[in-house]
Amino acid sequence: MRPVSTRPPFRGLIIIPAHNEAANLPAVIADLRRHRPDLEILVVDDGSVDGTEAVLERLKVRWLRWVERRGVGAAIRAGLRYAMRSGFTAAVRVDADGQHDARDIDRLLAPIASGTAEVVLGTRYGMTSDARSGASGAAQRMLAAFITLVTRNSVTDPTCGFCALGSRAIRLLAEHHPDGYPEPELHLFLSRNAIALTEVPVRSRVRLSGKTSLTPLRVVAASARVLLALLIVPVRPAVESLHD
Amino acid sequence: MTDRVQIAALTASVMLLLLVLELVRRRRLAEEYSALWIFWALALMGVSLRRDLLDTAARWLGVYYPPAVLLLVVIVIVFTASLSFSVILSRHQRQIDRLIEETTVMSAELRELRSAERN
Q1: What's the rounded Cα separation, in Å, for the pair A198 and A140?
Q2: How many residue pairs bridge chain A and chain B with CB atoms within 8 Å of each other?
Q3: Cα distances (angstroms) measured from residue A116 to each of A3, A71, A74, A185, A198
Q4: Is residue A242, in this structure, part of any structural domain at all?
Q5: Residue A243 clears pLDDT 60, i.e. is over it
Q6: Closest chain B C-alpha to A44 CA, distance in angstroms
Q7: N or C: which end of chain A has fewer CB within 10 A?
């Protein structure tokens, strides 16, 4: 499965952005270690105030942290910067709330290990029929349709955070991963910069404990930002300096 | 406009120019951000000296009261200034973001190096 070219040997890092997920992290990390003991784990503690720091020390994982909350985009940028500097050739983003299933990591990493894609995005609606219902389901489908139209990639789940990145994408996104509610904007950015990406189906689960950070006000702000990104990102100049 | 208004406007624009230059001299205002202010101070000075410019502009715009054009100019100044602040702020925000990320990664590297040394 692994390429025999001149590329450096495969080294994968799991990046877990976490804000106040001390209750969920032990189970999430145990699950990851059970399924992929070969991958290193990095938790980026985004200003948690629930004792995450102590949990990280106990779990013996690599970690980064800052005191004020800066958002998931910043956490991923820092994680990717760490991955780049420590010589990792692939990175997987896994959420700290337990919604992402460690069993899907094999499928996410396969196109990167074989060199067929630089970015692999999980879709929760790839295997089963589209289960999204209600107003938010309709909004998500509309967003998926818009992004498919703009990027000319088939996108079914533009808000799933579960994804895997190759070394070129790691370098690019360590500097340019979007902020805010970044998943839809990430699609647009990758397409604008001609990064080969593919979707693979992943399982969807409910978060283990605690509650989502999305409040109605945040959803409105995020939607406004996504709308702006839909207009702006496709006409932005592509990012230069992608030398290997 | 009376001559008194002209003198007041001229005094104000000269004082603005001197204030900006003094701030640059004391390094309270960076050269790159002073350019906009120097430009507008000179523009205001020009309008105060040549008040017929204001009258011509008013006629061209169809404004009946020429001093209203001066007000318009001031509004444009305030607008461009605050837009340029937003641009500068965005750049600084980005630089601070990258700096935090870099130092965070560096402190993790240092921590890992030290713990590897101990073992």
Answers
A1: 19
A2: 31
A3: 11, 31, 27, 22, 9
A4: no
A5: no
A6: 10
A7: C
User: Is residue A72 within 8 angstroms of chain B, CB to CB?
Assistant: no
A residues 23-62 lying closer than 8 A (beta carbon) to B: 62
Token pair 């896994």 is at which residue?
A: A94
Which pTM does this prediction carry?
0.86
Strand, coil or helix: A199: strand
A203 near B CB under 8 A: no
Q: What are phi and psi of A183, to 5 degrees?
A: -60, -50
Q: Tell whether A231 is covered by a domain.
A: yes
Asked if residue A240 has pLDDT above 80, the reply is no
Contact A65 B104 (CB under 8 A): yes
Q: Is A160 domain-assigned?
A: yes
Judge whether residue A208 has pLDDT over 60. yes
Angle of CA points A214, A134, A138, to nearest 5°: 85
Q: Which chain B residues contact residue A72 at CB under 8 A?
A: none
Closest by Cβ to A66, choosing from B100, B109, B112 = B100
- Residue A223 domain flag: yes
Span between the terminal Cα atoms of chain B, in Å: 83
- List chain A residues with CB under 8 Å of B104: 64-66, 78
Inter-chain residue contact B105 with A78, CB threshold 8 Å: yes
Considering A17-26, A212-221, B64-73, the range whose residues carry the highest mean pLDDT is A17-26
Helix (H) or strand (E) holding A45: strand A40-46
Please tell me the total count of domains within chain A: 1
Q: What is the pLDDT of residue A171?
A: 94
The CATH number assigned to the domain holding A197 equals: 3.90.550.10
Query: Could you say which residues from 6 to 25 on chain A have a Cβ atom under 8 Å away from some Cβ of chain B?
Result: none
Q: Each residue's pLDDT tens digit in chain B (119 positions)?
A: 467 878 888 999 999 999 999 999 999 999 888 998 999 999 989 888 888 888 888 899 988 888 788 888 889 999 999 999 999 999 999 999 999 999 999 999 999 999 999 88
Q: What ipTM is given for this predicted complex?
A: 0.85
Domain membership of residue A75 as a residue range = 12-235
Cβ pair B105:A65 closer than 8 A? no
